[in-house]
Amino acid sequence: MSKYVLRLYTDQLQPGAVSAALAETERVIYIAYGDAVCRGHGFASSLAPNSVWQGRLGITLTGGSKGVRLLRWELSTSEPRLLTGAGVTSVLTLAGEPGIEAGINYLMRCDRVDFPPGGVAFTHTHQGSGIRCLQAGRICIETQSQKFWVEPGNAWFETGHDPVFAQTRSDGPSHFVRVMILPQAIRGKSSIRYLKPEDVDKPKTQTYQVFTDEPIQLYPTEAQSH
Question: Nearest-CA neighbor of 163 among 104, 121, 123, 212?
Answer without folding.
Answer: 123
